[in-house]
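Good morning N.,

You mentioned wanting to compare the apo and holo forms, so I went ahead and generated the holo version with iron/sulfur cluster. This is what I fed in:
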Amino acid sequence: MGNVISGGRELPAVEEMNPVEGAEMENVDGKKGKPVEIVIISGKGGTGKTSLTAAFAVLNKGCIVADCDVDAADLHLLLKPEIIEEHEFWSGHNAIIRAEDCTGCGICAEHCRFEAIKENGSAYEIDELSCEGCGLCVRLCPEKAIDFPPRLCGKWMVSRTRTGPMIHAQLGIAAENSGRLVAVVRKRAKEEAESKGISLILIDGPPGIGCPVISSITGADMVVVVVEPTVSGEHDMKRALELAKHFNIPAGVCINKWDINGAAAERIEKRAEELGACVLGRIPYDPVFVKTQLDEITVVEANTRIKDIVENIWKEIREFGGKHGISWS
Ligand code: SF4
Ligand code: SF4
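and this is what came out, ligand included:
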């Protein structure tokens, strides 16, 4: 392992961390420039989004992978990163009552709309997990008995993997601000790409359409929505595509386990096209997804029928990008 540090100190970019030997490091025009960002998202977890992101990274060795699913990061299980830098992620504040200075007037508890403050004997105390860090109690306390230190919410890492550099993060238990952490991961991924002339960043986005997803796709070049053929899958896909449309980002759809409900898969394809998305391909249900996860490899590193199918989807993504003037090496 390289120079792993903690303590929030910023280390310079690790110059020796080249992606993969022989990997093309320049953009298609041979110059360093803005990298292409492709975000793989899904309406819910467990659709195969992370397996596909890791497989695409293997198919485009030398790209940067950013795990922006910071609430449930698991891309590291497939890509087995070797951590080179580790940084603390500080965001927001914790309110803490100094019991010795608290007179027990109860003003803070009365006004905390998150009900995070409770009486404890003659003083009051704050439940760290319920406190949203709004700071109101700090302002209202007549005794100035509430401290408000910065909150350590998690960590983010720069790593080396067999496919290239990886930027990933881990949000602390019950920590908030995952949208901000996503922004930190994306920013660092872009810096790495720009400094090394890497033309593609693959982002494993969070599920859903909340703040972390918005933070993952804002300003990205392409969105790939992974969906399963179910009623809720169709609904989730619709919301994800509407979000992409709102941000004017070209979107494609990939149906995983399409054969568990062929009629629903057809309906989803039709719906996706109506919403202006490109249908990138279908993947049948196959236990190889689970098996490769257990073996800590990607589905394209196992020699099964899924390898060809995923390779074809990656080809479709390239072609779809080309139609929108988006290309990478
Ligand atoms: S407002 Fe201040 S003094 Fe009153 S209960 Fe809260 S912490 Fe104690
Ligand atoms: S900081 Fe806000 S949420 Fe936290 S205890 Fe004080 S008033 Fe409640």
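Residues 1-32 have pLDDT under 50 and may be disordered.

Happy to go through it together on a call whenever suits you.

Best,
F.
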